[in-house]
Design goal:
Layout (H helix, E strand, L loop, with lengths): L12 H13 L4 E5 L24 H14 L3 E5 L9 H10 L3 E6 L6 H9 L4 E5 L5 H8 L4 H14 L4 E6 L8 H11 L2 E5 L19 H10 L1 H15 L16 E4 L4 E3 L9 E2 L5 H14 L22 H8 L9 H14 L17
Parallel strand pairs: 1-2, 1-7, 2-3, 3-4, 4-5, 5-6
Antiparallel strand pairs: 7-8, 8-9
Helix pairs in contact: 2-3, 8-12
Amino acid sequence: MDCSCIPKLSYSAFGAKISKEAIKNRIPIEGAIEITFRCNLRCVHCYCVCDTTRKERSTEEIKNTIDEISAAGCLWLLFTGGEPFLRQDFLDIYVYAKKKGMIISLFTNGTLIDDYLAEILRDYPPFNIEVSLYGATLRTYEKISKVASSFSRCIRGIDILLKKRLPLSLKTMLMNVNKLELGQMQDYARKIGVKFRYDPLINPRLDGSKEPLSFRLTPEEVVASDMADEKRKHEWKQLYEYSLEALNSESLYPCGAGRSSFVIDPYGNLSVCMIARKPSYDLNKGSFSKGWNEFIPREILGLKHPIEGECVRCSYANVCDYCPGWAQLEWGEAESVRPIEFLCQITRQRLKAFDLNKNMIQENYKKEVCL
């Protein structure tokens, strides 16, 4: 799963200041609404689980929620899925949010984009449209998507967005099926003049299924991909050097989850993160305000790291990707004390590649566990 899923504020000093103030004052400034878990592709790595026995929220219910989150201070909003364009009312919902003044990003596989849809988006332009590109060739792409002709429809959708001069970027989940085409995908993005990013960390599905994990890269391959890209290598090194000097937090959720960001699924469940789904608040039985101001602080933000957990005592906890969401998907509970060896190995490999050592770490967190 792409864990950088909620749109982030600009990395400018101004954006950083806004983000810091939002966290400090618990303003839900950035959020994601999963319009549907339905999709016209059957991607092998997908984390979504579409429950056909459950009813998706109606147009009016989603609009009412948009009113509520806008009043609460939400500025950056992501519409995602599943495939959001499968909902016949998507443009109605999207335009409604735009007219509320929100800065909107869209995540899509691009296969359903046509001239009519693009024309509406041009009239009400989003901040960004991220299209998932799973391979540079038909064979690789459709080995992942499991749907015939999906590669050509994706490329056609990209072409339409470019023609309409809409803000476009490409991304991929890097896995053992498409790793040999990473360079070709990057070249394609450069050729058409758009940004490209990738995420090599595959998660279990939301229902706990480990099936997607068979498509993970090895930890060595993950780090090798970082080292092969000079920009990515520089950014990771900066992050590691900064994080090694940062203080750990006793809070189970030390990030912006539940402090400045939130996620709402197709059935109206409000949670703090794309991968940390439990506990959640049912918006069908209450308001966003009650969920944000009462439920989340009471049920989630007060949780502490289990003191017996190896990860919380690890010297390198601040630079590891381990978090409650990962624990929840891997082990079934956010407060699990079990480390995830896949992440431990990636951290070990990155520290070695960057030639960083534990002498750079805060004195009160020197006990090694993972490494």
